Amino acid sequence: MAQVTFEEIQCKSALNRVNVPAMPDMRWSLNPYRGCQHACVYCFARGNHEYLGYNTGRDFDQRIIVKTNLVEVLRRELRRSSWRRERVTIGTACDPYQPAELKYGLTRGALQAFRDHASPCSLITKSPTIVRDLPILRELSTVAECTVLFSIATLREEVWRHIEPETAKPLHRLEAMAKLVEAGVRCGVMLAPIIPGLTDDTENLESVVQAAQEHGAAFVGDNVLYLKPGTKEWFMPFLRETYPHLLPQYERFYRGAYAPRRYTEEVRAAVHQLRERVGLTPRDEQPRQPVGQLQLAL
Fold first, then answer.
1. What is the per-residue DSSP string for 180-245?
2. CA-to-CA distance for 81 and 28, rounded, in angstroms?
3. How many Å from the N-terminal Cα to the C-terminal Cα in the chain?
4. Domain 11-278 grouped into CATH 3.20.20.70
5. What tens digit of pLDDT does each residue of 63-83 get?
C-alpha cells in the first residue's frame, strides 16, 4: 500500500444536512474522514477532494483528512433541544471503517454517542473491521433504529481487484454481515455501483443478491454507476488501460454524469425481480425498530 498522509483538523460541525431527491429519507450525514484509503476507482466522492485543493486521484486515496474532534462536536449537537433524533447516515463521502479508523477510532466514538443519546443512524462500509464494534452496534440497536449497509458490487475476484484495489474481499464483507445479523443488528447489501459491461450481467447481479440473502441481509439496494466531474477523469483512464473494449460503450453512455435512463431502468428492474425471487426488499422499505431499555448516559 502506498504511503498515506493523515491531516488532522478541528471540525466546526459533525452533522451535515443533505438533500438527495432519490433518497428522501436521508436528511443528515456524518463523515469522520475525507478521502478514502480504499481507492475505489469509481468513487463518487472523489470530486469533493478538489474543494480542499487536492487532486481527485492519488490525493483522494492517500491524503486523508481526519476530524479529530468529531465525537466531541457530535455529542454537543445530539444534546441540543432542537435535535429531533432524525436518522443520520455515516459514511456518505468516505468509508468510516477505512484503515484510518484503526488509528483514530472516530467511527466507534460516533456510534457510542448515538447509542448514549438513543439517536438512530445507518452506516455504509466495505470493511469487515466493523465487527470490532459489534457490542456497540448491538447496544445501539436496542435503543434506536440502526442499520448497517455493506457495499458489494461483485463477487468476481478478478473484477474486484481492479475496481476496489485496497478493500477486503466481498466474501469477507458478507461473513462480517452474517456475524452482525446473528447478534441482532439489522443489515443489508448495497449492490452498487452496477458498472456497465462489468457487473451488470444477470449472473453477477444474481450472485450478489443470492449471497446477500444467504448471509442474512434484510434488504438489497442498488444503484447504477454515475461519473461526475472528479470521478470521470480518474475512471476513464482506468477503463482505457484495464478494459479498453468497453470504451465505445462508455463514450455513448456517459456524455454526462449518468447512464441512459432506459438502461438504468432495465438494470434496476432486473435487480427487483431477483430480490423478489429470494424474498428481499429494496432499501427504502425499512421498518421502525422498537426502543429497548438500555440505560442512557446523557
1. HHHTT-EEEEEEEEEPTTTT-SHHHHHHHHHHHHHTT-SBEEEEE-B--TTTHHHHHHHHHHH-GG
2. 17
3. 41
4. yes
5. 999 999 999 999 999 999 999
